[in-house]
Amino acid sequence: MENYQSYLDPQTLASVEGLDLQARLLVEGYVAGMHPSPYHGFSVEFAEHREYVPGDDVRHVDWKVWSKTDKLYLKQYEEETNLLLYLLLDTSESMAYAAEGRVSKFKYAQFVVAALAYLVLQQQDSVGLALFDDAVRRYLKPAGQPSHLKEVIHLLDVTPARDKSDLGAVLHDLSERFKKRGVVAIFSDLLDDPTKVLAGLKHFRHRRHEVVVFHVLDPDEVDFPFRDPTLFLGMEGLPDVAADPVALGAAYRKEVAAYLDALKKGCRMIDIDYVPLRTDQPLDLALSAYLAARASRTR
């Protein structure tokens, strides 16, 4: 088998023509290292249980669960629990940031979104896509046919990262639009008031969706490695700032740590998977984190 691991580096993938090809290479590279069969067992991860009620067929009782809990639960089989994945991608201007020598947060997120869409459609499950900044700009309704991937890729290709963000308002909007319960995967730098972000996420949970937050950041935004006096360019309407990074570095890192901690704790309190992604991180780890979180929840 061709060594796809070489394609999992973000810089390498960025040089490959065609986001659909990049998605395929990323998925094939991931599964080559994780399982001999690319898609075997993926849908099984999403099987569920429900409580037994009088009249149910006892052949579907999970006796292992009964032996541990003394309660009767029925197995929900794959054909009863097809996956519906909503992919939400932040296209605000801050997502275009890229430190020298790295891909932008937006491009990195595009890779993972395309790969997850490819993987789920190969499973014959359904994928929808929403692109947003301070409002929902593009929305592709969920579908499960293989040709749907072309529509997903097209929207990713033609939508630039620009304009302001209002993540809280967008999450409230989309939580009302999504009528059928599914898995909501959000890709964003979350550069907004954590209280508003968490309120929007809570709305999805109130409507009984499962939620995975992929927090996409450039390492420079967390580590703040700058040393020389620097003019920091404002994004999303904010003014430019001239500053001495050494003088403010410690305070900056403290604020960022508090902000990240608030998001992590807030997600944990409402039973949401929080998956940090750094743009210097191998892309296969993004898929691993997502699938591991899903598997651990269903188990």
Enumerate the strands of the largest sheet in spatial order, edge to edge or round the barrel. 5-4-3-6-7-10
* Alpha-carbon Rg, integer: 21 Å
CATH superfamily of the largest domain: von Willebrand factor, type A domain
Instruction: Report how far apart the termini are.
Output: 32 Å
Seen as an oligomer or otherwise, the chain set is single chain
Mean pLDDT: 80
Shape verdict: globular
Biggest sheet: strands, sense, closure?
A: 6 strands, mixed
Q: Residue share in helices?
A: 40-55%
Which residues sit in consecutive blocks of at least 5 with pLDDT less than 50?
34-47
Description of the molecule:
With 299 residues, the chain is of the alpha/beta class. Helices cover 42% and strands 19% of the residues. The protein is built from ten helices and ten strands. The strands form three sheets. It has a six-stranded mixed sheet, sandwiched between helices. Strand 3, helix 4 (105-122) and strand 4 (126-132) form a beta-alpha-beta unit. The two termini are 32 Å apart. This is DUF58 domain-containing protein. InterPro entries: DUF58 (IPR002881), vWFA_dom_sf (IPR036465). Residues 48-226 form the DUF58 domain.
